[in-house]
Write a structure and sequence with these properties.
With about 575 residues, the chain is mainly beta. The protein contains seven helices and 28 strands. The protein has a nine-stranded antiparallel beta sheet with strand order 13-14-15-16-17-21-20-19-18. The structure holds MU-OXO-diiron and calcium ion (3 copies). One calcium ion binds next to strand 26.
Amino acid sequence: VSEAKASVSRFAFKPIPTFTDATVHVPEGYSWKILARWGDALVDGAEEFDHETGGSAVGADKVFGENTDGMENFQYQGKQLLAINHEYANRRINLPQNEDGAPKSADDVLKLQHLQGVVVIEVEEGDSGWAIVKNSQFNRRITHNTPMTLAGPAAGHPLLQTAVDPSGTQSLGTFNNCGSGKTPWGTYLTCEENFNGYFGATSATPVERMDGVDAGYKRYGVTDTGYNYDYHKFDERFDIAKNPNEPHRAGWVVEIDPTDPNSTPVKRTALGRFKHENAEAVLAPDGRVVVYMGDDERGEFMYRFVSNGVYAPGQPTDGLLDDGTLYVAKFNDDQTGEWLALTPETTGMDAASIAIFSRIAGSAVGATTMDRPEWISANPNAVEAYCCLTNNKNRGVKPNAGGDDTSVNGPNPRETNKYGQIVRWRPHNEDHASDTFDWDLYVMAGNPTVHEGPKAGSENVNAGNMFNSPDGMGFDESGLVWIQTDGSDSNEGDFAGMGNNQMLVGDPVTGEIARFMTGPKGAEVTGLTWSADRRSMFVGIQHPGGNWPDGGKLPRSSVIVVKRDDNGVIG
Ligand code: FEO
Ligand code: CA
Ligand code: CA
Ligand code: CA
């Protein structure tokens, strides 16, 4: 665990205390404003937001979607284009006329499908601050029904074939878009996380399933009820009794070109199928593309993809994310670790099955079970990367869905881990493509006002900066790491004094961590990126409670802009 060294702080702000109220707080000398809320129109003629109904089904793909998450900024032809995920739907909020929130019609389902996915918006800073450029040719919604192609080793495999798409290479929609990533060639990576929740069965006597399908359902949590989205009752595609392979067409990393509104998104199957959090792409010294990825489920794994081809600016990038090797992380207790290749030789599975059932392949080679790997981010100033391990109530209690042991281990040292930690690894030879690394814990979250020992957290946690459940994360260009939380905001018991979910900033060298922002009660803070001049920071507020931000009947997930009052650079 890093030792906080006494030194001059690199943070250009006075850290803020915790808050438990219904709004956002930033340090003295900074301010925040709304950029975009669920329901804000992207084009002229789109409906104004209706607090009674939350909008119509047909209008729901012409507005900013629900539950903002990962985001990236792209500069193109002098414009700034934000690509932003809309992770999931809050049915009671998005279908307010249905008392239990359950869809009652195909229209209700279509509305939810339209509110999720991805948005691309052009944004511009004017006299009254940042705003969406309405009617920009780049504004685009990608939903649960947008046509996509499947590429890489699983494309065309029988497990990806359906009655509607016997080729197994065309699919509709991207699902539960959680964290994000950006390729060196300027495309957006959106990561499909809890895709299993959208599927269900209308019949107890399903059509025949291919070999391995039921084992896959079990490992990935595909069930007859899903998470009660009830899509399957009104849209046959989501009925696994009729379309047992449809769930295999979700759970991928999807590449989107934000500069071409007519481009078809591509599901990159070489990057594996699991509950993808985000995708952090970096280059190895020889130009190979390395993508780090976490699988956010209790006791699941961390992954790395290394391309066979090399990236060179201006050269074609076709196939770079389709041809390469997928690895899982093995952490040793002596603070070393290795990336284990998932190949037919190591797993006994064919290449397509390794892609489709990556979790099963990871178990076959003995990957380390983790405390829910959320965002991974690489330090631009050092050859090292960080992963938020958010929490894990099952650590030391029960195995993962594959039966793998979840006793405490090196980077996951606490049973029934309530607070989470951030693991950091340094690849050997200063090369992200190296198969070995050294690791340590950058921080172990905890509550030193309630506990002593491991539950108090590491030395760089104190009463003034404590937090739980690190989740979103990103480095700024100066090399500071911003940490966002998605945990308990009860402010009681184990979480006493931690207040609402928050965003902190860490110095990777000294270990110092300071609280920069707090979110409204009920919300998590997730997703961050900067304007081109770094004088504005865009931050996501997901699932706010109450009636934030505009005091109407319904709360509206939003992206906010944080600025310094002197318009200085942030971070
Ligand atoms: Fe969508 Fe694991 O957070
Ligand atoms: Ca997350
Ligand atoms: Ca989380
Ligand atoms: Ca979330």
